[in-house]
Specification:
Number of strands: 18
Low-confidence stretches: 1-6, 328-336, 462-468
Strand order of the largest sheet: 3-4-5-2-6-7-1-9-8
Shape: elongated
Radius of gyration: 29 Å
Largest sheet: 9 strands, mixed
Strand content: 15-25%
Structural class: alpha/beta
Mean pLDDT: 86
Length: 468
């Protein structure tokens, strides 16, 4: 998309920038790493010819504070200088010859939010989305993105980097569900996340190569977020080593000789979590399935575990030690005929799931889990010096969503904050304390060795006769 036909000020770079500008989803999140051309792309997106030629078009650009908004306005003035646009008011309003208008605003105080309510905006651009600290505020803001003009489709274009007060809700809304793919919510609204990095912006790489040097020299945490665009890294993160590109694999058929495990963390109000894992001959662990639900009775979970396991041979099932407590609440019992003094582990055993009590050493368990996740190398250059020992199949979406989001406990920094969604982390911690690698099968012998062994057995059987 060119923003001026006779005087071309901007042409999108091939790759993510072009892709983002061509998307038709209602909500588009573009960016991730720094230097990927996010702000420039959004500025061009706001003045798509089909829109600015329509006198009824109304657009809105939002920055978090007035200082950032002024910078954006200056850049837009320069970029749109051939569009015969007039800039009036404070905050600025851009008025086009057709009668179309693009307004600007900021969210520096609570009162500023109300300025946009009740309006109709066909395109809404929001910069640095993670600076909005809650999804509720975002939804309140985009409630003004609507149309009474059939030819003007409503779209919201957001840009951001990982980190900031809104990191978790942005990650949950886009990265976990719409990473390079269209997600449709129950109401039929669509959204997509298009990731970009500095390597996708050859203009910046050529004009300011020192910017890449600066990003590469950052401390590990910032480098992972700003250079690699990793949403799995943020300040206070507990498992900093986790990287989707390193640890997450496409599912494959588990070889027959690998040892399989199950691990369970019980919950009713909180989530009930079960993972299935396989261990190869070198001790590498592959989590290949998960069951993750809440507010379901135990009989439901047992049926699902047995159904998902099928005819797989499970070497060991490991469970949360709290499952050995007797006299659980009535809501946890199988039915009214079940004796009240049975523990959860007793009921599992009766229903065909023998289980052993997990080691519940939290801090040492987390340290052990970190060792399994640890790797070394440069993911941008696809060079891995040290491979991790723990891998996750991409169908285990709740594991991939929750483990990177865990933070340190504020008072016991060696531990995970237990107020967070740590149930699948607990199952993994239990698992890694109890696994063992299977014995490697002995290599097949060639026919010469087999024949010599046959002769040796014959000689041994006739040894007394031969020597006599």
């Amino acid at each position: 998309m060119n923003i001026a036909e006779s005087n071309v000020v901007f042409e999108p770079h091939p790759g993510p920038q072009t892709e983002a500008l061509q998307r038709s989803e209602k909500e588009i999140l573009y960016g991730g790493a720094r230097g990927g051309g996010k702000s420039t792309a959004m500025t061009a997106w706001m003045v798509e010819p089909h829109y600015i030629e329509n006198p009824l078009y109304r657009g809105l650009v939002i920055r978090r504070n007035y200082t950032d908004l002024r910078d954006w306005i200056d850049n837009a003035r320069h970029m749109w200088r051939y569009l015969d646009v007039k800039v009036v008011g404070n905050p600025a309003e851009f008025r086009f010859p057709s009668g179309a208008k693009i307004r600007t605003g900021h969210l520096s105080d609570e009162n500023s939010w109300s300025a946009f309510l009740g309006h109709e905006y066909h395109k809404m651009g929001i910069e640095e989305l993670t600076l909005i600290d809650s999804e509720e505020k975002y939804l309140r803001l985009i409630s003004s993105a609507r149309t009474t003009v059939p030819e003007l489709q409503v779209q919201i274009f957001c840009t951001t980097n990982p980190g900031g007060p809104g990191h978790h809700w942005v990650r949950s809304r886009w990265i976990d569900t719409a990473y390079n793919q269209t997600y449709t919510d129950p109401k039929g609204n669509t959204r997509i996340f298009i990731p970009s990095r500095i390597y996708d912006n050859p203009t910046l790489m050529e004009v300011d190569p020192g910017y890449l040097d600066m990003l590469e020299s950052l401390p590990d945490e910032l480098r992972s977020a700003w250079l690699e665009g990793s949403w799995d890294t943020f300040a206070g993160q507990y498992f900093k080593d986790f990287n989707r590109d390193v640890h997450v694999l496409e599912p494959f058929k588990i070889p027959e000789g690998w040892r399989r495990y199950r691990c369970i963390d019980y919950g009713y109000t909180n989530y009930f979590a079960c993972i299935w894992a396989a261990v190869d001959y070198d001790g590498n662990v592959f989590i290949y399935r998960e069951h993750y639900e809440k507010e379901k009775h135990l009989d439901h979970h047992i049926a699902r575990i047995l159904e998902l396991t099928g005819d797989e041979e499970i070497y060991l099932t490991i469970g949360d030690p709290a499952m050995w407590i007797r006299n659980p609440q009535n809501s946890n019992r199988m039915d009214e005929k079940m004796p009240s003094m049975l523990s959860i582990s007793d009921i599992l055993l009766m229903k065909g799931i023998p289980i052993v009590k997990a080691n519940n050493d939290r801090v040492n368990g987390w340290n052990n889990m970190r060792e399994y996740l640890h790797w070394d190398g440069d993911i941008n250059r696809k060079k891995i010096v040290k491979r991790p020992k723990l891998f996750i199949f991409e169908n285990c979406q709740n594991w991939i969503r929750t483990i990177p989001s865990l933070s340190h406990d504020k008072f016991r920094v060696e531990d995970v904050d237990t107020k967070m969604e740590d149930h699948l982390a607990d199952t993994t911690r239990y698992l890694l304390f109890h696994i063992g690698r299977p014995d490697k099968p002995k290599p097949a012998k060639n026919w010469v060795i087999r024949e010599l062994e046959k002769l040796d057995r014959i000689d041994s059987g006739n040894e007394l006769t031969i020597r006599s």
